[in-house]
């Protein structure tokens, strides 16, 4: 599809991939709208990129999604692309009894319920457009679980499953459904994982987002940048190889400890 002269809403656009998407899509002559929870981070983006439109909105809050929809569609009736990017990744020790029942599922609200609710709210509007798209950001961890972050992996696998079903259900509409199966990359999200991941395998966000945009332009519905494509092949040829390696780290870090 043509990636210029669109009106694009990106959730979580104040850092990492979201901010990189905002910059590159702006350079391609699109109208770009971003969200985030932190007003000062939104103000900072606005200061550096005055053309980006910013809205404070928490993707894990259904009421905030309704409000966002009403404001965005009123101000930007041409909105035709939604990028579900906002996400959180935590180390979770499943032995840790200090994590309460609400908190243990926090990533589900953000990474899985968030995109599902965003699509549910914005889809009728997107369907009215001649060309439209939804891009959901999943992870190479849909191909191999990362036991250090068990809830995160579950959310991304759930989002992948939902995205594939959504693509089928929207087959006869104008809305194309893309999935970005992102590999580990140098963003603030990964800062907590420096001990768990080898930095030489991390991709630069500008390169990764460049691959994602090219994928959308060429109609590649599942986009595997960098090492994601290797993990994809490895997960078929030797399903447990990478998993066993990742499991070693979690065993060392969590066994015998109550919290991390
Ligand atoms: N970096 C990686 O290695 C990697 C690999 C695979 C997949 N991913 C996925 O890529 C996406 C972007 O991650 P990133 O690495 O760019 O992370 P990041 O730099 O931490 O950025 C996350 C963005 O999401 C926003 N956000 C977080 N929770 C939100 C919420 N509830 N509502 C609205 N906005 C929210 C953050 O802003 P506020 O905190 O101000 O709200 C921020 O703008 C995520 O879905 C992540 O799971 C990342």
What's the arrangement of secondary structure elements?
Elements (H helix, E strand, L loop, with lengths): L6 E4 L5 H12 L3 E6 L2 H10 L4 E4 L5 H14 L5 E4 L16 H4 L1 H22 L4 E8 L10 H20 L5 E8 L22 H13 L4 E2 L3 H11 L3 H14 L6
Parallel strand pairs: 1-2, 1-4, 2-3, 4-5, 5-6, 6-7
Bound molecules: NADP nicotinamide-adenine-dinucleotide phosphate.
Please state how the strands of the largest beta sheet are arranged side by side: 3-2-1-4-5-6-7
- Regions with pLDDT < 50 over 5+ consecutive residues? none
Q: Tell me the number of strands.
A: 7
Overall geometry comes to globular
Report the CATH architecture: 3-Layer(aba) Sandwich
The CATH superfamily turns out to be NAD(P)-binding Rossmann-like Domain
CATH top level is Alpha Beta
What is Rg?
18 Å
Summarize the amount of helix as a percent range. Answer: 40-55%
What CATH calls the topology is Rossmann fold
The hetero molecules present are:
NADP nicotinamide-adenine-dinucleotide phosphate
Rounded mean pLDDT is 95
CA distance, first residue to last residue: 44 Å
Question: Strand pairing plus helix content: what structural class?
Answer: alpha/beta
Largest sheet: 7 strands, parallel
What is the number of helices? Answer: 9
**Strand residue percentage:** 5-15%
What's the SSE pattern? EHEHEHEHHEHEHEHH
Overall number of structural domains: 1
């Amino acid at each position: 599809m043509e990636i210029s002269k669109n009106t694009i809403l990106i959730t979580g656009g104040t850092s990492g991939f979201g901010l990189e998407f905002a910059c590159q899509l702006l350079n391609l002559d699109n109208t770009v709208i971003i969200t985030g929870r932190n007003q000062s981070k939104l103000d900072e983006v606005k200061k550096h990129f005055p053309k980006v439109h910013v809205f404070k909105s928490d993707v894990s809050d259904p009421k905030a999604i309704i409000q966002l929809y009403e404001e965005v569609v009123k101000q930007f009736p041409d909105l035709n692309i939604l990028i579900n990017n906002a996400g959180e990744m935590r180390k979770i020790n499943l032995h840790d009894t200090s994590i309460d029942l609400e908190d243990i599922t926090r990533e589900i609200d953000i990474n899985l319920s968030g995109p599902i609710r965003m699509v549910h709210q914005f889809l009728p509007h997107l369907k009215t457009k001649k060309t439209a798209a939804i891009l959901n950001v999943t992870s190479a961890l849909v191909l191999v679980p990362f036991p250090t972050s068990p809830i995160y992996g579950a959310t991304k696998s759930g989002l992948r499953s939902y995205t594939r079903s959504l693509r089928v259900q929207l087959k006869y509409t104008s809305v194309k459904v893309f999935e970005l199966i992102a590999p580990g990359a140098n963003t603030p999200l990964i800062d907590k994982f420096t001990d768990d991941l080898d930095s030489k395998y991390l991709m630069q966000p500008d390169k990764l987002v460049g691959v994602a945009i090219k994928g959308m332009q060429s109609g590649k519905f599942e986009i595997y940048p960098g090492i994601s494509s290797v993990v994809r092949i490895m997960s078929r040829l030797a399903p447990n190889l990478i998993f066993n390696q990742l499991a070693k780290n979690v065993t060392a870090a969590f066994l015998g400890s109550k919290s991390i």
